[in-house]
Amino acid sequence: MLLKVEGLNTFYGNLHAIWDISLDVGEKEIVALIGSNGAGKSTLLKTLAGCIPARSGRVVYRDEELRLRHMRSDRLVKKGIVMAPEGRRVFPRLTVENNLKMGAYTRPKKEWTDSFTRVYDLFPRLAERRGQMAGTLSGGEQQMLAIGRALMGDPKLLMLDEPSLGLSPLLTEKIFELIQQIRDQGTTILLVEQNAVAALAVANRGYVLKVGHVVQSGTGRELLSSTEILRSYLGTQ
Description:
By secondary structure, this protein is an alpha/beta fold.
């Protein structure tokens, strides 16, 4: 098991945002987190990335227990836990290539070449635009750049927060094809996604969050076939 979370609790001030969440992420899996807005999905990713301190609980990554209340994000990145945040958050006044370099800042420069090759192979559009300012890219290209930047950190666990947000159906389909390709290359993915159908279609397993709690889990296929999930989260009758 790559990642094991037990009884995780996170607060925003006095607001209890994550309640006793437990989940597992296996090696080379895509694990999807689905739920309505405000369910705690992004908060969970931010906690695991070290952006928000956990109040209590246990997180074990590659057989090492992490002290998330005291762990800096850059140290987690060095361990291989990397997040591509919601909203892309590229550096608009830096070129594509310099944005990618920002994702590799924790690694020795001698290791960058292989990562550049991997990213440009996955995203040929970025190779074509490597000298272009990131702020002039389309929304889909910026999303590719955000994922590529995260891959430059050589993640063992890649956490993607709403990768299809604001994209056309055609680009959404392309992004999910790339997510599967990244998994097939050996990178484990923890995926937060409002497009539950697309997420569960590619996921090995999934967890359903509601108001900070895990309320259901199963394989992607099992959750897609659940009448309750279909009605509550996928907009079908």
